[in-house]
TrEMBL record:
Cofactor(s) this protein cannot do without: Mg(2+)
Region (Disordered): 243-269
Family statement drawn from the similarity comment of this UniProt entry: Belongs to the small GTPase superfamily. Rab family.
Tree of life domain: Eukaryota
Cellular component terms per the entry's GO annotation: Golgi membrane
Presence of keyword Transit peptide: no
Catalytic activity reported: GTP + H2O = GDP + phosphate + H(+)
NCBIfam families reported in the protein's UniProt record: small_GTP
Protein name: Ras-related protein Rab-36
PANTHER family in UniProt: RAS-RELATED PROTEIN RAB
Name of the gene this protein is made from: RAB36
SMART domains named in the record: RAB, RAN, RAS, RHO
A GO BP entry: protein transport
Species name: Oncorhynchus kisutch (Coho salmon)
Top enzyme category: hydrolase
Amino acid sequence: MQEMRNGMMHFPPPVSRDRVISKFPKCYTPQACLQIKEDWDAKAACKERTDRHQGWDRLKMSKAVVVGDLNVGKTCLINRFCKDVFDRDYKATIGVDFEIERFELSGAPFSLQIWDTAGQEKFKCIASAYYRGAQVIITVFDMADIKSLEHSWQWLDEAMRENEPGSCSVFLVGTKSDLLAPEERQRTERDAIKIATKMKAEFWSVSAKTGENVQGFFFRVASLAFEDSVLKDMEKGITSTRIGGGDSIKSDRANLEEPQSRAVNTNCC
Ligand SMILES: Nc1nc2c(ncn2[C@@H]2O[C@H](COP(=O)(O)OP(=O)(O)O)[C@@H](O)[C@H]2O)c(=O)[nH]1
Ligand SMILES: [Mg+2]
């Protein structure tokens, strides 16, 4: 992202203020979550990279694919987060397969590609390139249509066929929470939590119409994807720096593996 012009280094424009995340975002419910910790594991590594401007020249980007039955609310969910609108016709963007959202997480830059289908799910023929190389799979169902929850398994299977086991974080998202009476919502959430646990997925209940939990959900996706990619880099030895007071990466990684900070459902899929 960083380029040289007239011998000067150019950095991308600052991340918009509503995409700066300094506190590690919480899960929706600890009953079906991927991480229960409350702070960034890789904070030290990230901070050091940023301080030395290492983050900007190797900008991190993860791919998130959104899947689920037709009409469950996938496009509305993405539009609510990326454009803060509901039910407006953005069909003009056909041909553009994904949105890119730029974040600043714990001081480090990070981008999330959010892939939406152009309605191919109607024919159950989404191209394999859509799923390939995803770090995040967001399986969406309509909380007012229990069949779409049952179909989540098929969508997850299809997405996983194109990805390595253990390479993705999976989210199960119930949309249209605004349509349900409180008792019905509770019942549906209980069913969804059971399925999410079996899928090793993190469950969220959202409404694109009211905006409820939409930002919280995407902040969580971005934060978990970011951490995952930093930790994977560290495992591959890409971060060759020493962290903190001279601790080696190895001992730092040992710290990361302390039980209190271990994920409940890590390395899902
Ligand atoms: N009440 C309500 N309706 C929604 C919500 N999200 C989407 N919808 C409606 O559900 C329909 C399908 O939404 P869309 O995003 O196009 O579904 P997609 O096919 O999964 O992309 C549209 O008529 C939306 O207005 C929501 O949060 N609440
Ligand atoms: Mg759509």
